[in-house]
Design a protein that fits this description.
With 330 residues, this protein is mostly beta strands. The chain contains one helix and 25 strands. The chain has one domain: 6 Propeller (Neuraminidase).
Amino acid sequence: MIKRQTLPRMRSLHLISTALLGGLFASACSDHEPTVPRSALATAGPSATRTPVNYKFTAIDTILIPGARLISAQGINADGDIAGSYVDANLRQHGFVLHGGVVTTIDYRAPDGTFADGTNVEGIGPDGEVVGTHWMNTEEPAAFHGFRRTATGDFQTVHYPGHLYEIPQRILPDGTILGCRHDADFSTTGLSMHGIVIGRKVTSELDIPVSMTNGATPDRHRLVAQAMNMSTGFNQAFTIDDGVINPIHIAGAIVSTAWDVDPRGDVVGFYRDANGFHGYVLSADGLTTTTLNVPGATATRAFGINARGDVVGTTVSGGKTFAFVATPEP
């Protein structure tokens, strides 16, 4: 079970992008006009709001989820509801939603009433809908099946046509789902893995192997993604702004990831340098990078951000992995 839980994340640390040399992205925005004004991306200049932000860190640990051996926070919505996953004492993985201080465990249930052996929750929408994956232990290691859980608790299948498996990563306010699809080679070379967008009418994918599409602004003018450079084997984060790919450069980073973006266009993710793993928030204009290091932790990884600028992720301290919320201080 621990291998199942960590497989997407550990593999994602080694993804990087051949998109640095170009690549074609077929936008899924063509089926309708943007529903909100476009966020400022690379056009805004320096201002007081662009200075690095100080954060207050709060742990999500076994006090909230008794008996958990590993806790990972993946997404957070504007109301502060947090979605993620945890591994229990029996090494079984469950999804969860933290709302108003109360944790609700989420275990995928098939239409025939069968519960999955493992459930992973990745993203959460404004109304509490979540997306993620489920699997059975009898399946091949690459078998991650996508699902969507409605605000009323009903499970729906999320499947990208023409391929075996998918990992839904985010759900936008209009119901658009982002993530990646793959086939049986996911656990080896991963060449069948491509970032995807599942819109209301149109599905599309990145024409970049070993890539993931992890988040987007509500108007979808900015997407965040990552992919593997086949020559180096390292991961590179990038944004896609109105179809134009822009690599994210962080000084000293050997590996970089981009996991989410807020409505303004600020990007959140993590990178690895000579000193280990660090979370980061990159301002929408690309001028300011704020590094996130949970005090006392040996590793910090950021995965989600909401409209208020709250960030969630995981931290390793004392050999244990737990979740955190980073709240901007005034």
